[in-house]
Predict the structure.
Amino acid sequence: MKRPPAPETRPAAFRHIRDLMPLTPRERQLQLGRLTALECTELFYDWNFWARADQLPPEGEWIAWLILAGRGAGKTRTGAETVRRWVTKYSPVNLIGATAADARDVMVLGESGLLACCPRAQQPTYARAARRLTWPNGATSLLFSAEEPDRLRGEQHAKLWCDELAAWRYPQTYDQALLGLRLGDRPQAVITTTPRPIKIVRDLVADPNTKVTRGVTFDNSDFLATAFIRRIAARYKNSRIGQQEIYAEILDETPGALWTRELLERGRVPPGSAPREFREVVVAVDPPATSGREADECGVIVAGRAENGGVYILADLSSQGETPAGWAARVAGAYRRHRANRVVAESNNGGEMVANVLRQCDANLPVRLVTATRGKYLRAEPVAAAYERGLVHHVGVFGKLEDQLCALTPDFDARAAGYSPDRADALVWAATDLIGGGANAGMVDYYREAARRG
């Protein structure tokens, strides 16, 4: 006997979440009560029902779908659901995260990641050690870290999901990925990121083969905690960080800032071009006065001085919310890992206590305390001048650090900006220590040169 056709999986009265949102709780209950348990489960995992129009793949021919969206706007879920859609027809559909931990914890295991988006019967098998997902239909997805561009050499992809591209330390990772995007009838990449005004993002936006979708945090407010929405609206309203992190705007250069994106790009070097040995290496730390979620960041920067006198920024290990013991352990670990000569620590917040906290982690840690007697802008001027002279180089991209450098103006107001530039402060201490080989030599040379120029 022939089976009757399957019933409509949901009432005609609602085919999208926006049809239910205006209803009262009682009306929603009545509508959903018409569904069977199986239909409710199917509806829960039906992305076409939940997605906004800007979260579905665009029409037309494109190679890259660039999703520029604010924090909490739903870009991770969009990337995961796009992969879920692609693996029904294509393989391999590979993933690249800013770090190996991001690829694992956000793209695969996160609350908006692949495993959370798929019903049990459609979930892939995740082999952590192999960094590999195997889908029920046999399709595969390999996980890559943007910190390891050479791992992408020789790899081929039918489709790609690249997450937080603007935070990738090595932009050449994307070039390596594109060279392998060559399988199937429509090789494509979905790129989910909060924007930064860096070259790779600007180039993608200008590329005719890119479709750009923009989203703001408040687009997803129905699915975010009310307290979160209130807090970010109050704290970051009318600030540049709010424009970038909430409204996903690609910001222009800040008038009067000591650093520009062009200046940073001019001195940037890929990891393979940086010196292997340094005459001196320092770990600079700008400690916060408090700990916890609302505390300022603890700026931790590692820098080295090469034989030719050039200064290379090697790592940004800054963190937020750690206890003094936590950030001290991070500093001591960086000192050992990078075989540093000393730790340079600002003592304005805590004085000798800063050195004592650091030495509790390592009694032999050589700590040089420095005291800020000038404002941030004045302290940073000679270091910015060293960048202009081609003396300072970033080994890769340090997104948050570079955002702070390019926002540092004479009238910088931490309260209005919504953050304190602690990463930039730590960089200034590191570069000041290394330029000229002494704690204040960089500043002295700068002001002497300025005086000679009249």
In short: The first strand starts at residue 64 and ends at 69. DSSP finds 19 helices and 15 strands in the chain.
